[in-house]
Amino acid sequence: MSQRSFVVEERGRLNNYAIEPKMYVDSTQQFGFNQYAEKINGRFAMIGFVSLIGFELIAHQGLMTWLGNL
User: Fold this and answer.
1) What's the Rg (C-alpha) of the chain?
2) How far is the C-alpha of 68 from the C-alpha of 70, rounded, in Å?
3) pLDDT digits (tens, 9 = 90+) for 2-57
4) Each residue of 20-31: b (16+ CB within 10 Å) or e?
């Protein structure tokens, strides 16, 4: 059975509304080093690295130098 990308009404008129895809939810819990956790950790690391570079450009000194002057 193939899924059609259109719907025809009972009078034979074409219904142009989109057909929503079937939702898939993976209900198994994952702990530890899994693919999702590694992806999130990598994204946070990239955000932190870019933020550090931005801070150094604004402050005109490194983070460790700035922390040492507090």
Assistant:
1) 26
2) 6
3) 556 677 778 888 776 666 778 888 777 778 888 888 999 999 999 999 999 999 99
4) eeeeeeeeeeee
CB 30 within 8 Å of CB 36: yes
Can you spell out the DSSP letters for 2-69? PPPSSEE-TTSPEE-PPPPPPP--------SS-HHHHHHHHHHHHHHHHHHHHHHHHHSS-HHHHHHT
* pLDDT(1) > 70: no
Residue 34 tokens, joined: 């899994």
Listed by start position, the domains of the chain span: 7-68
**9 close to 15: Cβ distance less than 8 angstroms:** yes
Q: Which two tokens stand for residue 58?
A: 């604004």
